[in-house]
From TrEMBL:
Organism: Deinococcus hopiensis KR-140
Secretion signal span: 1-27
Keyword Signal listed: yes
Identification of the protein by name: Plastocyanin
Keywords in alphabetical order: Signal
Lineage summary: Bacteria, Thermotogati, Deinococcota, Deinococci, Deinococcales
Length: 288
């Protein structure tokens, strides 16, 4: 693989601090149908061989010893897994722009789990990918963390879950509802990409004792433990697509971040183009 983009490389530097921090559980509530169970191991996915089209909930459980995420993509007709991986080695941003990104679960620490509901609108070959790099900066997918599965046409069509909060992804920022307090506990976020580039919504909790100023300083000069802790989120979707992240948030200060490389900005991660936003989760008692 070519060098990991800057945002994902910065995430690697968080591992030492993150693995010693209290893990947040992220099961969330779902919308009726049993979720498709996927295990993220070191370094492979354990997943069913196939699912049917329509709205589908995946539950990713990190059973490994390293942080992992799950990015889902659909390969266009005529493209093989080997073709796609070869394109990734040449130019990650261009390769991702050439497939349909359908979402997935953001970075989880060992022992964490989270659900995401995505629309597998078309049959075909899909891939599960983990771009999280190891301590040497090598993406897990280059170590074998790539799994294909087939989506076939199904008769029953499930409905997406009811959203508690709606987020719009734009070039380059996150649009949240104005004047809405985000409270602790299980919740579903509807995440829509208004594009035109592909975007993700990674969720990080700011470490205790740290501030957004510390995060900004670290992004400028990444030295020492990273001041944010992975807390899941929604992986990248192509323009016009929507996914639903099932979150379970504790009170505290958080940020949203998009690390997708921009094909129109020489592969610069979207976070470097301004796609990073703080938000606060308040305790329910604070709303009374």
């Amino acid at each position: 693989m070519t060098k990991t983009n800057a945002a994902r490389h910065l995430l690697t530097l968080a591992l030492t601090a993150a693995l010693t921090a209290p893990a947040l559980a992220h099961a969330g509530h779902t919308h009726g149908q049993a979720p498709v169970q996927v295990q993220a191991q070191d370094h492979k996915f354990a997943t069913p061989a196939g699912v049917t089209t329509g709205w589908t909930t995946f539950e990713l459980k990190n059973t490994g010893q390293e942080p992992h995420h799950m990015q889902l993509v659909r390969l266009p007709g005529g493209m093989t897994q080997a073709d796609f991986l070869a394109k990734l080695r040449e130019n990650e941003g261009a390769a991702l722009a050439g497939v349909e990104m359908v979402g997935g679960v953001g970075m989880l620490l060992p022992g964490q789990a989270q659900r995401v509901t995505v629309n597998l609108a078309e049959p075909g070959t899909y891939l599960e990918l983990c771009f999280v790099p190891d301590a040497k900066g090598v993406p897990h997918l280059a170590l074998g963390m790539v799994q294909s599965f087939q989506v076939t046409t199904g008769a029953a069509q499930a409905q997406p879950p009811k959203a508690d909060l709606k987020v719009k992804l734009v070039d380059y920022g996150f649009e949240l509802p104005k004047g809405v307090a985000i409270t602790e506990g299980p919740q579903v976020w509807e995440v829509t990409n208004a594009g035109p580039e592909g975007h993700e919504m990674l969720v990080f909790r700011i470490a205790p004792g740290k501030t957004m100023a510390d995060v900004a300083a670290y992004m400028q000069k990444p030295e020492g433990p990273m001041p944010i802790i992975p807390a899941g989120g929604a992986q990248a979707v192509t323009k016009g697509r929507t996914s639903y992240a099932h979150l379970n948030l504790a009170p505290g200060d958080y940020i949203l971040l998009c690390g997708v490389p921009s094909p129109s900005h020489q592969g610069a991660p979207h976070a470097a183009l301004g796609m990073i936003r703080p938000f606060k989760v308040v305790a329910k008692t604070a709303q009374k």
